[in-house]
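Run log, item B.
One chain of 317 residues. Sequence copied directly from the ordering sheet:
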Amino acid sequence: MSDIDEDDIRRVDGGLLLVFRELVRRGRTTAAAERLGLSQSAVSHALARLRDLFADPLFVRRPHGLEPTRRALELAPRIDALIDMIGAAVAAEPGFDPARSRRWFNLAGTEFAAAAIDGAFVQAMRQEAPGAGFVFQFLRGYMAVEALRRGQLDMALGRFDTLPSELRVEPLYEDRYCVVARADHPTIRGRIDSRAWRDTGHVFCAPPGRTAPDVGEDPLPNAAQVATTALVPRWEMALWLVAGSDAIATCPRSIAEQHARVLGLQILEPHIAVPGFTISAARRAEPDPGLEWLLGLMRRRCETLQSGMSTESDPTA
């Protein structure tokens, strides 16, 4: 470590980090001062030190309060994690008490893997850990794995074939693909054959930068093989487009089940046998009682999700 780095570290104390976190959460010096039991002038002084330390304004005053700068938003999850690690290091006893915790978990994953993080999950988390919370961002594949390795994430959800030795993976639930069409589709009603699947316009979901001809992964349709209507970045948008048109989509069943009733969609079994896939949680291998609790909460939600995956073709009936 360089002398400059050591000098910077000497300028940091836990109180500064706590002030930063409360300003991000609450957006006002008065609210942060009340939460921390400090005077408003003490919070203002700490903010001045933070600005000097990070060489950035960090917060810009707006009519509604303090608005974090881009640099502050980048720092927020790292400082949250650092506060948690400091708290764990100085705790008298190891463990995690959800009822008293104020930890914010940093999660990421693909859109279809986030099906387990729904309203029921949030409600259960609120009941057991009213002071805790989570931040979720969409990250795919190697990007999520690298963020885990760098300590920027607590957990990633998705499909993982291989992982570095310092990470561990735990299966959560099994999913499979289905076909969705609007409930009052003029030609597709309760089932779909190979001709309709090929000739009806598909809405595809693919990450940014992909072009229509190379969309799709075996055994899903490829845009060069079927009629294509649209290419969008999110499954939720794809289902909205299907709900308002005669197009169809081949999508994960967990997502279809969540949106079918609200959007008025029929869920159809594919005309061919399509292998299922496993959604897993990946995290660092070292013990973390807080993550164990969160995983337990997620497992219980996934059990309900798994059992609720209907085999009926039309949940709107």
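Observations after the first pass:
- The chain has a mean pLDDT of 83.
- The first strand starts at residue 59 and ends at 62.
Flagged for discussion on Thursday.
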